[in-house]
Design brief:
Elements lengths: L2 H4 L3 E6 L3 H12 L1 H8 L3 E7 L15 E3 L2 H6 L5 E4 L5 H12 L3 E4 L2 H17 L4 E2 L10 H8 L5 E7 L2 H13 L3 H10 L8 H4 L2 H15 L18 H10 L1 E13 L5 E13 L11 E8 L3 E8 L3 H21 L27 E10 L5 H11 L4 E9 L2 E8 L2 E2 H12 L9 E5 L4
Parallel strand pairs: 1-2, 1-4, 2-3, 4-5, 5-6, 9-16
Antiparallel strand pairs: 7-8, 7-10, 8-9, 10-11, 12-14, 12-15, 12-16, 13-14
Helix pairs in contact: 2-13, 5-6, 6-11, 8-9, 14-15
Length: about 450
């Protein structure tokens, strides 16, 4: 390749000109000099496609074609890399597959699409001999996916624990610090722009499950979708839960948890879940507050590593998108496809892996049981737990807002025994609602 060819700009097309797309334009403009120094070529934004052609994004679009025709952008011979930032499922899937068919590389931040249709997307990219990059899909500007794919590639990954959603972490932090109810804090989060008008994906843990599905595949080579991951959100947590967690030396975080259980004969089984979790207040994850994200990855050679930073927002996410652009641009300059498979494993090495059954999982738990206080009820509850081999380490009755709650901390117990005990406890006439059960994650 001649020196003149090496300096030829690499053309980029952007589909989706919302908050993150605007950030991408800013990064490409503001950091053009350092990008060219590190890349050896310019990244030239050739075209932008978006249905909203009227809103002023506050960025200079001189020299850029801006219209609503995404297919024309994909077909443009000057566009070598397509960025998809529109979100959702069907429409971005169509454009990404269209880009592959046209021989274009793709950068996306669409974790929902990859978590649901990843097998098709990655297979189509491999068939077309093009790259698909998605660092911004998990953790915003935190380079955790690149670390799983490259920096930790020599390790057998044992555990991934992550605070993967800034909205829920903000809500939990505020509930703890103010003592306010969930609905009050969520409304404030919406007013401040930390939560969407419809926060369902965030507060029900679905967004975190999307991200955990991608990381589980990259960490363990397990073919998994977010629908396979048991998921519990943060609705139903009360101020008393945070008060008591602090009293016991814990904080409550919504964690995405994935572990690989390896037997002596080399068989691998997966444990994956998203749920509110008690973590020791002295741990690193416990200190992650507000809208920040953090991921703890434990490898058998490197030990624990922690990745911390802004998990969302215009500029952090744009930073990851442009980083992916640069990585693909380097491969274009080299004249070949990337040496590292996007999911860390080659496609033929990724396949279904069995989940660890509940009967083989165990742990400690926090229980809050709303009751009509009756003499002897605490003893009956602890007896029901004992019948299922769930030992109680701490027990108390607390009154708040005119109602009583039995609060319990258990010893290490099998998950299936805990579930059976909960079924029996719910059948008690004095129990007024489904008990709140929060696992304690000592590894965090």
């Amino acid at each position: 390749m001649s020196g003149q060819d090496e300096q030829k700009p690499i053309g980029v097309g952007l589909i989706g000109f919302g908050t993150i797309g605007t950030g991408v334009v800013k990064v490409l403009r503001d950091n053009a000099e350092v990008i060219e120094q590190r890349l050896g070529s310019r990244l030239r934004l050739v075209r932008i496609a978006d249905l909203d052609l009227d809103t002023d994004r506050g960025v200079d679009l001189s020299g850029i074609v801006f219209d609503a025709d995404a297919s024309a952008l994909i077909a443009d011979p000057d566009v070598q890399i397509v960025i998809e930032l529109i979100g959702g499922y069907d429409v971005p899937r169509k454009f990404i597959l269209e880009a592959f068919a046209a021989g274009k590389h793709v950068v996306t931040a669409n974790k929902a699409l990859l978590a649901l249709h990843g097998r098709e997307i990655f297979g189509a990219a491999a068939s077309a001999s093009v790259e698909v990059a998605f660092e911004a899909a998990v953790g915003g500007g935190i380079p955790v996916l690149r670390s799983l794919r490259e920096g930790l590639a020599a390790n057998q990954i044992e555990t991934v624990l992550g605070i993967l959603n800034g909205t829920t972490n903000y809500v939990l932090t505020e509930m703890e610090s103010t003592g306010e109810d969930f609905d009050v804090v969520l409304k404030r989060a919406q007013e401040l722009g930390y939560a969407e008008a419809d926060p369902t994906f965030d507060v029900e843990g679905i967004d975190a499950a999307h991200k955990l599905a991608l990381m589980t595949t990259m960490a363990f080579g397990a073919e998994i979708t977010f629908e396979d991951i048991p998921t519990t959100g943060i609705r139903g947590l009360l101020p008393i839960d945070f008060e008591l967690a602090a009293q016991f030396g814990y904080r409550i975080k919504l964690l995405g948890i994935a572990k690989c259980h390896r037997s002596e004969d080399g068989q691998e089984r997966i444990e994956a879940r998203v749920q509110p979790t008690l973590v020791r207040d002295s741990s690193l994850l416990a200190k992650v507050d507000g809208a920040m994200n953090a991921v703890l990855v434990i490898g058998n050679a490197v030990g624990p590593t922690l990745y911390y930073g802004a998990g969302a927002g215009e500029m952090p996410t744009a930073s990851a998108v442009v980083g992916d652009l640069m990585e693909i641009a380097r491969e274009i300059r080299r004249g070949g496809s990337g040496p590292v498979p996007p999911l860390s494993y080659f496609p033929e090495q990724i396949g279904p892996k069995p989940f660890v059954p509940d009967a083989e999982l165990s742990g400690r738990h926090y229980l809050r049981i709303s009751v009509k206080d009756q003499p002897g009820l605490l003893g009956r509850v602890t007896s029901l737990l004992g019948d299922e081999a769930v030992a109680v380490e701490t027990a108390m009755v607390r009154s708040a807002n005119g109602s009583d709650s039995i609060i319990l901390l258990t010893g290490v117990a099998a998950e299936d025994g805990m579930q059976r005990a909960i079924v029996r406890i719910v059948e008690l006439d004095e129990v007024t609602e489904m008990p709140r059960v929060i696992r304690i994650e000592e590894e965090a």
